[in-house]
Amino acid sequence: MDFRDFWYVVSESRALKANQVIARQVLDEWLAIYRDEQGQAIALQDRCLHRASQLSRGTVRNGQLTCGYHGWVYDGTGKVVQVPSLGPDGKKLGNRCAKRYPVTERDGFVYVRLNESPEEALEPFAMPHYGEPGYKTLRLLNVFDNDVTNCAENFIDIPHTAFVHRGIFRSTKNEALTATIERKHGSVQVSYGGEKNNLGFFQKFLNPGGVPLVHKDNFYMPNVTSVEYVAGKHRHFIITSQSVPATPRSTWVYTDLTYNYGLWTGLAAPFVRAYGQKIIDQDLEILQNQMKVIEKYGAEFNNTPADMIHVFIESIRNELAAGRDPRKLPDKSHQVEFFV
Question: Which class for 293: exposed (0-12), middle (13-18), buried (19 or more C-beta within 10 A)?
């Protein structure tokens, strides 16, 4: 098992229009994404077989992709079906075919897998409550100047929020929190205790009554994080992020803000989107700075008990990098206390 066995988001389904081609990168592989005549999403290696121009610089018409350099035409299977320079013989090409990758669409996302035949047919991550009555999902896309591991660790890291997001989402109050951190079956699951009212400006929305919160953070191999808050009936908020490795230091992050707040669900959308993006903007800046320091001085970290989440995430991703199945790691559980 390795990173190429998994499905990665390359676009929202609604954003991939007919007669359009888009360029994406996944694990440093260049991809040209478009829809065929039946509307099915197609992913080809972004390289024309003729003179190595990028296919994503071309055009799509009636589900066929035309290279922008010499006009070679590819159908939905990646097969070359026309070479204009050959005139009437341009359709007699044998079986020249561009490299094609598996594609599927789930929960309004287009997914690509780089390994054509993995030993185990894994499914894309199921986005929680997507399209479910009573819930609304807002989708954000941001490109982080850092790797997947550091992004994922940031997204489920509480201590940084009191400093990077001070006032908007938590502040320094020296509040004691407890956490049960478990690593099992390729995931890291965290349940918090003692959290109630240190949510900054979001307190008015997430937990206006100040009731004890149910707060869970999860990481699912290889690249998904989920932050979940429950403060009673019609007080449910989930932040799900899929961190897609474009290059070793560039990560495309598709973030779903999914919530059910009763009558406020629809009315709150502009507020949730604006402040959700504001928080992400702050993370974009701090993670870019982290990468600059790592490139100069290396990635040597000094961990505390509150960083056990990060240690477990790194152990899972290190197994995948070594070509091993993280689900075979022994289950572990830690109880920790830290202050925010």
Answer: exposed
